[in-house]
Write a structure and sequence with these properties.
This protein has one domain: Leucine-rich repeat, LRR (right-handed beta-alpha superhelix), CATH 3.80.10. 29% of the residues lie in helices and 12% in strands. It is built from 3 helices and 5 strands, in the order ααββαβββ. Strands 1-2-3-4-5 form a 5-stranded mixed sheet, with helices on one face. The radius of gyration is 18 Å and the shape is globular. Keywords: Leucine-rich repeat, Repeat, Signal.
């Protein structure tokens, strides 16, 4: 019986370590694509200890808050959001004061999101139609931007949206 208990504990540690490594590797890869300012702020192997990152008990990244980073996005931003879409347990994403002028349509690929906060980013564009793919979204904020155009027809797919 002791052998079975040891095996279960060892397997749990192995499994948790792999989950943590996978999510952290994915997050670190995305952070490196966002640019040097974020890379400097978020470094290390355990992303669950980063300020603004929340993980669940299994080590899955569930929340990302990049508040007031004041970085300027580069050409790798769409790829960075594609990386974030691989974080299957990510339910909340906050990006404020990122100083970019367009909303990356790739955010629409992060289908697990329930909360998306994109305040004070100087967006001077229309809302991408791809945001309509965020069917789990309950809360969407885009305050203090310079958005133009109409709300996309695809927003009819956001049946869980409670706050806009």
């Amino acid at each position: 019986m002791k052998d079975l208990s040891f095996i279960l504990v060892a397997f749990s540690i192995f499994l948790f370590g792999n989950v943590l490594a996978d999510d952290c590797s994915t997050l670190n890869s995305a952070i490196s694509l966002f640019g040097d300012d974020l890379k400097k702020k978020f470094s290390g192997s355990n992303c669950c200890t980063y300020s603004g990152i929340t993980c669940d008990g299994s080590g899955h990244v569930t929340e990302i808050k990049f508040d007031n980073v004041s970085t300027y996005f580069n050409d790798n931003v769409p790829e960075a959001f594609d990386k974030l879409s691989n974080l299957q347990y990510l339910t909340s994403l906050t990006l404020t004061n990122f100083r970019t002028h367009s909303l990356p349509p790739n955010i629409g690929n992060i289908k697990s999101l329930k909360t998306l906060i994109l305040n004070e980013n100087f967006y001077s564009c229309s809302i991408p139609d791809e945001f309509g793919k965020l069917t789990n979204l309950e809360h969407l904020e885009m305050k203090n931007n310079f958005l133009n155009g109409k709300i996309p027809d695809s927003f009819k797919n956001l049946v869980n949206l409670k706050y806009l």
